[in-house]
């Protein structure tokens, strides 16, 4: 039995593991893919004190830092069930094996919903982006499209409009779904065009980077094209929490509901990073929350263990 069993090996899980191990308690990390989403990104320029790094490099550094400590890393293992047992919780893996922890830190992250159109995969990180806070500055002075007219799409379009030359917001439905206050702000911006009833059908590139996209005008069925250098896909962030449904309290968006110190609805189970209700999904925030969840887990252990 681990004192702290961390599920997830992204920035949140890695930070939790380091913080737990530094308390001298038995710490384990089980991860489907150690490194997490950072492995899928190229330039990272907002991890404070590191002006520039690359995803795979940061992923390797996270793992190396955890390996500096006496932490058992179980990589390429997917958790599929969490249940209470006498002295804590049992996590069952897809392999059939199970692990127990007196406390648990859930840090399973999230994934961006993709459009599923030709060209999208090929041009990921080559013009196709998901995070305006991360990649917005790369498109300074250029033309971009934002796909999705919900709150995140409209927020992204407003944010990008201050950095780039022009933003085209593309919404599938007849109207935007974002809050009125955001829509009003968006419509007040001179360098934004809004297209509704528009279905993106293809990402177009020149072999090395995005040069535009095709969309169908759903009103008349006509194919149209748009020249852009960047496409920000904002059609949903899906937390990796399907396996926890019916186990603990989850928001309507599938996020684990956490308190300011990372507590979940189950005593002794904490959560951190992109899988939680924390609003901004960023590496530095996930890492900070991982640290916080581990400290909360330690606090829980010293209050509940026999003297
Ligand atoms: P994740 O990084 O998602 O890690 C989750 C971990 O849990 C992984 O190890 C995964 O394999 C594991 N896991 C999931 N389900 C299970 C399961 N059932 N069992 C076991 N393990 C499981 N943020 C920035 O701050 N700056 C950037 O420049 C930036 N660029 C980005 C570019 C791209 C293309 C993407 C996709 C994201 C980017 N982000 C950036 C966001 C950032 O990567 C995330 O906010 C951050 O990685 C979240 O960390 P996390 O530990 O919460 O989750």
UniProtKB/TrEMBL annotation:
Swiss-Prot/TrEMBL cofactor(s):
FAD
UniProt domain FAD/NAD(P)-binding: residue ranges? 2-290
Relay the cofactor remark from the entry: Binds 1 FAD per subunit.
Quote the record's binding site residues for FAD.
3-18, 264-274
Which GO biological process annotations does it have?
response to reactive oxygen species
What are the record keywords, sorted?
Disulfide bond, FAD, Flavoprotein, NAD, NADP, Oxidoreductase, Redox-active center
Q: Name one GO molecular function term.
A: NADH-dependent peroxiredoxin activity
Per the record, the similarity remark reads: Belongs to the class-II pyridine nucleotide-disulfide oxidoreductase family.
This protein's assembly is summarised as: Homodimer.
Protein name listed in UniProt = Thioredoxin reductase
Primary gene name = ahpF
Full-protein interval shown: 212 to 518 of 524
């Amino acid at each position: 039995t681990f004192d702290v069993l961390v599920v997830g090996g992204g920035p949140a899980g890695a930070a939790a593991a380091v913080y737990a191990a530094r308390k001298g308690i038995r710490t384990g990390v089980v991860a489907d893919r150690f490194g997490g989403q950072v492995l899928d990104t190229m330039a990272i320029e907002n991890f404070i004190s590191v002006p520039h790094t690359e995803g795979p490099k940061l992923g390797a550094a996270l793992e190396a830092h955890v390996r500096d400590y006496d932490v058992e890393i179980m990589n390429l293992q997917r958790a599929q069930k969490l249940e209470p047992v006498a002295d804590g919780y049992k996590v069952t893996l897809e392999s059939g094996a199970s692990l127990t922890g007196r406390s648990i830190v859930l840090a399973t992250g999230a994934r961006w919903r993709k459009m599923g159109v030709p060209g999208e995969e090929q041009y990921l990180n080559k013009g196709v982006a998901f995070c305006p806070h991360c990649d917005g500055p790369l498109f300074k002075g250029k033309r971009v499209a934002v796909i999705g007219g919900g709150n995140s799409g409209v927020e992204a379009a407003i944010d990008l409009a201050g950095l780039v030359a022009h933003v085209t917001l593309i919404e599938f439905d007849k109207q935007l779904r974002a809050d009125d206050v955001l829509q009003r702000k968006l419509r007040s911006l001179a360098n934004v065009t809004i297209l509704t009833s528009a279905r993106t059908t293809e990402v177009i590139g020149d072999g090395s980077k995005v040069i535009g996209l095709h969309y169908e005008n759903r009103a008349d069925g006509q194919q149209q094209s748009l020249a852009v250098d960047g496409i920000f896909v904002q059609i949903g962030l899906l937390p990796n929490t399907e396996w926890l449904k019916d186990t603990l309290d989850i928001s309507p968006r599938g996020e684990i509901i956490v308190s300011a110190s990372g507590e979940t609805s189950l005593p002794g189970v904490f959560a951190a990073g992109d899988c939680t209700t924390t609003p901004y999904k960023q590496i530095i925030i996930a890492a900070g929350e991982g640290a916080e969840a581990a400290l909360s887990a330690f606090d829980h252990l010293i209050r509940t263990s026999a003297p």
